[in-house]
């Protein structure tokens, strides 16, 4: 009788474990569309984002074109698994492509960008188990920007004998936006966490205090700088996790070693 009770107990435990596991959506199909939905300038003539645009430009060209921020890889589609472990996911199938953002720093006069909002519109469709799609989710990135005056002393590190680098700062929206979803298995709502963050390092980092202050941000801000006449490309990765990623926002630099095939953060010189 004791042996039978023991087997019954083990069976009930396994059944409960199986029921609990089935409550988690383990794989999602996704579509992410990225647009600039807000922008501010220090004068007239900058792109008005209206209901959303894929590029912002500003200033009067001195021969190479206006300066700009340009969204690439949008819309992005694919499939991603729910990350269930601890720490930070560092390989497919837990990482997907979100979007990329390129800053083209051309010599200009006149109006310059001060701030912008990059909004990611995410559609998620549970693939395993196969269930109805979620309502559209919105995940904004807030950006502060400084078009430098190219006169020393420079607020950010700049090459010798070169005008001062422009300053780009991510000020919010980096990690652990959440949504609730019912997998229709009787267990009710579960909370999932969407993380859209820069990947592959080399471009994004903790800026000098002087650069942060120039952008109106506290010391230790996260961003990059771009030399005059060059472009900086920043790629973003995408995860869904069953728990918040345990990385505070200043510690997002720990994510920058993530390598995802097909994604890269590179600098190129304008031709």
Describe this structure in words.
The chain has 271 residues and is mainly β. The chain has one domain. It is built from two helices and 16 strands. The strands form two sheets. Strands 1, 2, 4, 5, 6, 8, 9, 10, 11, 12, 13, 14, 15 and 16 form a 14-stranded mixed beta sheet that branches. Strands 3-7 form a two-stranded antiparallel ribbon. Strand 8 and strand 9 form a beta hairpin. The protein starts with a helix and ends with a strand. The N terminus and C terminus are likely disordered.
Task: Show the helix and strand layout.
Layout: H1 2-22, E1 27-41, E2 55-58, E3 60-61, E4 67-72, E5 76-83, E6 96-104, E7 108-109, E8 113-128, E9 137-146, E10 166-172, E11 177-182, E12 189-198, E13 205-206, H2 209-214, E14 222-226, E15 230-241, E16 267-269
Parallel strand pairs: 5-15
Antiparallel strand pairs: 1-5, 1-8, 2-4, 3-7, 4-6, 6-15, 8-9, 9-10, 10-14, 11-12, 12-15, 13-14, 15-16
List keywords for this structure.
271 residues; mainly beta; 14-stranded mixed sheet; 2 helices; elongated; disordered N terminus
Q: Percentage of helical residues?
A: under 10%
> What is the terminal separation in angstroms?
83 Å
What fraction of residues sit in β-strands? 35-45%
Can you tell me the residue ranges where pLDDT is under 50 for at least 5 consecutive residues? 1-22, 256-271
- Quick one: biggest sheet? 14 strands, mixed
- Rg for CA atoms: 22 Å
What is the tally of helical segments?
2
> What pattern of helices and strands is seen along the backbone?
HEEEEEEEEEEEEEHEEE
Question: Which whole number gives the mean pLDDT?
Answer: 78
